[in-house]
Amino acid sequence: MRAILGDLEKRFHMRQRHFALLAALLLAGCAHKPPPTGICPTTGFIDNTDTITYLAPDAVKGAGEKNVAVRGSINGYSGSCAFADKKKDAVLVDLKVPFVAQKGPAGAGLKQQEFPYFIAVLSPQDEILQRTAFTVTVDFDKGDSGENTEDHSIRIPLPHGTDGASRYKVIIGFALTHAQYDYNKERKK
Questions:
Q1: Which domain does 3 fall in, by range?
Q2: The whole model's pTM is what?
Q3: 24/54 same-domain check
Q4: Cβ proximity of 47 and 175 under 8 Å
């Protein structure tokens, strides 16, 4: 009987040592926690809002591209993000938004064109938290096309205990009329 108890006691102590070793390994992994990943929000466009087209005032229905005075496009975006401070209660998103524009057949006399656009921040539930309207001016000094780039810094407040803004969204797009939006949908068919 004593031999059996001694054997059980050995196994128990062996398991305790294995458990202690496993616990030490797991806790050691927590001691040097890597910086949080995914602090940047998803950034992109709403469908059909990355292009804006102005038609000639006297546009003839069915004349197609002959009616185009000018067309602007958001030529992608680039940027970075970081926690705003050591409290990690906000993320700063720095965006560089390049715009390009091309005069159409009906826009021969244009020297420049202003294009209205917006940048919005959506919550993880897709609620609009921030929406700011801007206007970019593109000059046609060098011919039928032009470009301009604008820089923006956006602060996204984060609820306490959030590692980052990866569940948030930053949306960029032109502020289109209904007719311009419908025109973009038709062009992409």
A1: 1-33
A2: 0.76
A3: no
A4: no
